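Researcher: Here's a chain I'd like modeled. Treat it as a single chain, no partners, no ligands.
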Amino acid sequence: MLGDLLPESLFPRKLEPATERRLRLAQARAEEALVRTHVENALAFVDALAEELPFDRAIDTYIRVLGLAEPLASTVVTRVLVVLGQDLLPPPRRIPEAEGDVGAPKLRLHDAGRKKEKLRG
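Model: Modeled as a single isolated chain. Structure tokens:
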């Protein structure tokens, strides 16, 4: 009876590719906002308990009390530690290239195709 009221065509099981991409983008944005909120709250938790608990125990307590599961728990812990470490550690050193500091290496995405063309020609 319910099948007559709600035909299958109203609720397709497979989404169009464009809709699927938009859905994945929206999901990624929501997940990132969730992680960011947990990091902010965990940092506030660490600050609030600074006199009673060391930061690592405070972070562990936050994760445990809120029942965060993996991989979210590891992501939150890592990002909280990065924020806390920014105040304690100097910035990372850059390794200069042999010819001077030229930045990131160039991508060579088309080199393999060019080599094949040279071998054919």
